[in-house]
Design goal:
MiaB_methiolase; binds S-adenosyl-L-homocysteine; tRNA-2-methylthio-N(6)-dimethylallyladenosine synthase; pyruvate-formate lyase- activating enzyme; OB fold (Dihydrolipoamide Acetyltransferase, E2P); 16 helices; about 450 residues; 4 iron, 4 sulfur cluster binding; five-stranded mixed barrel; binds FE3-S4 cluster; metal-binding; six-stranded parallel sheet; alpha/beta; binds iron/sulfur cluster; Rossmann fold; 4Fe-4S
Length: about 450
Amino acid sequence: MSEANKKIGNSRKVFIKTYGCQMNVYDSERMGDSLDSEGYVATETPDDADLILLNTCHIREKAAEKLYSDLGRLRVMREERDPSRPLTIGVTGCVAQAEGAEILRRAPTVDLVVGPQTYHRLPELLRKVHEGQKVVETEYAVEDKFAHLPHHNRRAVQKRGVTAFLTVQEGCDKFCTFCVVPYTRGSEVSRPLDQIMSEARELVDAGVKEITLLGQNVNAWHGVSADGDVLHLGDLLYQLAKIDGLKRLRYTTSHPRDMDDSLIAAHKNLGMLMPYLHLPVQSGSDRILKAMNRQHKADDYLRLIDRIRKARPDIAFSGDFIVGFPGETDEDFEATMKLVQEVGYSSAYSFKYSPRPGTPGATMKDHIEEKVKDERLQRLQALILDQQHQFLQSKIGQRIEVLVEKVGRHEGQMVGRSPWLLPVAVSTNAKIGEIIAVDVTDASSNSFLGRAVN
Ligand code: SAH
Ligand code: SF4
Ligand code: F3S
């Protein structure tokens, strides 16, 4: 907060709602930081807020439509408000990028529309709004957004806990035929090494023990060392591992085509790189993979999984699947079921194909009936749930390391993160931020129960 704002006690409140992926979670945090320096304090209650930002997702139709039902509610809230407490409403993120001014037409209650590449300009854009303008800003900024963001707010980092996200790469050049991301986030950009290192140090100084590097295609990250050498994600992980006080590293989301040898070797040689990898494949059918423009075959993926498992035998995989892509036959779907059976995931996300405006998939022939998509989704999800159950059960009796994250529901209980991300409930005196040895004694459908080892 600036001195001027402090003196006049002019603290305004902002409520940010986040839809979509982890990159949006990170963006919401950074928007909060940039508003903090303008005198805005975060609130968890929309009713208290002077400014409400909806940080949106465009990936599937349902995600995008959710925005409009929320805006309907906000319109009512605004109408019922005491006029002495004006409310500003902004839409940020991927729907903002994709629909721009159309949002103002559909929902005139909105004051401000800002795409994901320009939110560092929020304070300046809000000033325009307060002067009475409606603002739409969806240009890809020429300047580096990240270089213009303020430092992390230490209090906010501490409040969020001992794990943190750090975006290192944005955008996508892969153009899978179902996906809006290349259009909403723009082309692939890697943040420079120095910027990432100093942001990571800032997070660790504020108490963060585990960092998850983020990118739409995080393993396409590349940079240059001080000596001019070209660096890949594996090299970045080694650099980060040198930061004193940082205990664990993860990265997400990866594309199978960008898993290079040095990254696979990092899984073998870098103990603090956690044995969990989200590696989406979308389908097990070569015909469908080709139509999706994934640029690899099912067998390439299976061989890749083998190589990574060889480097790190205790690694757990998760994935993303789309059922009912245009032209998907029963046989294609069975190939997906077979691939899932061969891999054995610890968890996975599966979605019904949703045609998105402007993507090649939307205009393809042979769209699949909703009923068929539903049936396939149900079968796939049942298989994935069964694998998740088996994975959890397979760890009972093992001794694992747990990063203590927060106080649990029961007296004396803490909740921590297992190496495979799944939470562990354990009775212990250990403090938040400690890494403790735990014997896994039981498992529920999505978490472990454990006993602390003295
Ligand atoms: N960059 C990541 C995924 C980003 S989108 C990757 O390449 O894997 C997250 C997931 O949403 C995708 O993996 C895909 O499974 C799903 N998805 C994307 N577009 C979709 C669409 N049109 N319909 C249904 N699911 C979709
Ligand atoms: Fe979308 Fe494909 Fe890019 Fe992932 S790799 S963000 S699915 S276009
Ligand atoms: Fe959604 Fe944009 Fe993320 S479309 S999944 S919020 S990159």
